[in-house]
Amino acid sequence: MQSLGQHLIERWSVCMGESKVHLSVRPYTREDAVSIAYHADTVLVGSLDQWAVQYIFDDNNEWLTTADSFRYCRSRRPLFRHFYRSPAHLFEVNTEHFRLRANPMLHLSVGWQNHASVPLFVNQRGLEVRGDADGRLFFYTDLVETQAQFARYVDQWVETYQALPGTGFFKPYRPRWLRESTAYDYNIAQAGIGFYLTRHVGVQLGHGRFFIGHGQRSLFLSDVGNVAFFLRINTRIWKLHYQNLFLELHPISTVVPRPSNSLLPKKYAALHYLSWKVRRNLNLGFFEGVIFNRSRQFEWQYLNPVILYRSVEGMLGSPDNVLIGLEARWDLARCLSLYGQFLLDEFFSSELFGRNRQGGWWGNKYGAQVGLKYFNAFSIPYLDLQVEVNAVRPFTYSSFDSLNSYTHYSLPLAHPLWANFREGVALVRYQPHPRWTFAVRTLIARTGEDPLGQNWGGNPLLSNLSRAQDYRNRIGQGITTYLHLVGAELHWQWKHNLFWEAQFLWRSKRSADPARNMETRLLTLGLRWNVWYRMADF
Known about the structure:
538 residues; mainly beta; Porin; 18-stranded antiparallel barrel; 6 helices; 44% strand; globular
């Protein structure tokens, strides 16, 4: 789920007609969020806009300048004089050379699922701490402990891929108050430090997730999987934002059988992405990434931040997994945003353009995305619509060596439907009042699952040497499966980032193999505080 702050900043960048921040690179900084809010404060005059601007200021108040101290909101009655001196933060320190923010994290919910005697629940507790020294050295950490019982289709995912979406190590959990349970117990920790090498170059080191793109999904890099250890270099100058991202990954999860007392095998990723603001309302992005395993040794040549990885691969004589991509976003009429991605994993022109009469060569691996966002739809303030179509051919993200697949912890690094699918997504979000938000989303997808012991290109965890056929490969091959999902949410913000909420979800899976059919209906009620959960939309 996109956070409230991210959504506000994105819609402002379109409605104002310009933004100096490259919003395709996430997460972006709190300093950037405040700079956009400053601009919105001078351009947008609606009552909801003024509330939203103040929300961003409160959430990131360490970045308010002395000149705008009147925007720094102070609590009338701090708790025990030292806590909640501002509405957004449990504890804060503000000195000339040091700033600190600490907040609790909590998510409690209970739900009911059709044909299930065991209730669904989420019990998350955690703490977030962030700060900086001298305005140059930054740190961030959060730790969330979780016990949760998910819907049956999530359990099915765990059984199939031996991994739990959104996390790494997990173990079974059985509460005392339930006779039977398929719940999970796990921790999620993100942390890092960052500093500015120069005014325009910043470096970060830590554990985290990243997202590249403007859509609900990303074909390049998304945050649906587990956190990863990273080194990140951001260079922002003129109309360019250049990101170098180096990741240490694991090809399997801890659930996959392996020798006792052994470390998980490792692989690595080197990714770079260049975002270029061609005009105020036109943005282009160029992506390249490589996945490689070297028996616990990083391939140092991939540290060159400005070389094409395909050329390095050639110099090494290495069959590493290289992907390239192109992205674009075009904002129109201060209310529309048209965007898209094209990912190329591998292809041969002679096969792609049909010299072989059979067609559908397995090695033509690519994917595409196109989407449209409509803000203040039909002149209704804060009614936002989005439609998006994604398609990825079979065997995309895979490699002849399963350790080189575009995955981490047996989870996808890009789209949660992996490969071999065509998908349509639609979203409606309406905020008629600062406290109330209503959202509806729907998904329709056609994909292909693998029969037992066969590989039809939908699972990049498998080596593509085990492919079922070389030609006549089409999206949806294998066991053709149709997914339909509708979700509705109602949120009431009681205090800053403290939400009471109700959610309904209906999911239907219809397969050419009737034994795989499944229909899910669930209703949940909950309380969420400084936590932004991830949708299980797959």
